[in-house]
Amino acid sequence: MTLRALLVLVLTLTFAAAPFVTPPFTGYSPETFPVVIDRPAIQPAGYAFSIWGLIYLWLIAHAAFGFWKRSKSLDWDETRLPLATSLGLGTLWLWIAPHFPLSATVVIFVMLVAAMAAFLAADEFYDRWLLSGPLGVYAGWLSAATAVSIGILLAGYGLLSNTEAAYAMIAVILAFASLIQFLRPEMPGYGATVIWALAGITLVNLNSHIFVSAAAGGAAFLLGSLIAWQWRRSKALGH
Fold it and tell me: What global pTM score does this model have?
């Protein structure tokens, strides 16, 4: 278990360091697709990506505490192999994404599956804010980012129009995130992170694709309503 805790710590540090040793990534280059779209409607506003600062710092705190204080904990250990898988792929992702969008989409999908396995395996009451908390925010952002990546591919390869791809992926984000939030009602950070991404899609499309903006805003409202209902229900039950 100690070796797995150390592995998570090392991979977390390489994952957080990757942006400092790769060229800045601002999205897939439109020229890499048969259909050139200067601004994919599904892509959030640039400010939304600032959440990576929180994700990196919280994952580092998670990994350091896990190695220092919980290296022999069975509860923590259940999350380590899937999390290490996701972080290892994430370390490579920034090298792949600028040149191979299709491969990058496959990689981020696997990252999401692994991160979700870690998040769902995390004990909901044990070290909540250093175990479930950071895993939930990380999985939440990957949920949105995977849908965004798929949406860009759908439009870029002409399978759907730019706005059709946005509508489809907003629906996917809402359905998937609602399911996960329903399964983990005690961790609103997951859903809040997805709402942050949806807000980025809402704002960036206000002046260009107003109906896409409305769809993203509506999805954010519905997901927020679910979280609020879960919170009220938890208070009523005395949790």
Answer: 0.95
Q: Is residue 152 part of a domain?
A: yes
Q: What is the pLDDT of residue 170?
A: 98
| Residue 32, in any domain of the structure | no
Alpha helix positions (H), 30-187: 51-69, 74-96, 101-121, 132-156, 162-183
Q: Which amino acid is at 108?
A: I
Model pLDDT for residues 79-120, shown as the tens digit of each residue: 999 999 999 999 999 999 999 999 999 999 999 999 999 999
CB 180 within 8 A of CB 62: no
d(CA 145, CA 52): 12
Please name which of 120, 189, 176 lies closest in space to residue 150, comparing C-alpha atoms.
176
pLDDT in tens, 203-227: 999 999 999 999 999 999 999 999 9
Taking the C-alpha atoms of residue 200 and residue 193, their distance in angstroms, rounded to an integer, is 11
Q: Distance between CA atoms of 111 and 94, rounded to whole angstroms?
A: 13
Q: Which domain holds residue 81?
A: 2-18+41-237
Q: Is residue 224, in this structure, part of any structural domain at all?
A: yes
Domain for residue 26, yes or no? no
Token representation of residue 170: 């907003």
pLDDT surpassing 80 at residue 194: yes
CA distance 126 to 132: 8
Of the candidates 7, 130, 163, 110, the residue with the CA atom closest to the CA atom of residue 58 = 130
Q: How far apart are CA 146 and CA 108, in angstroms?
A: 6
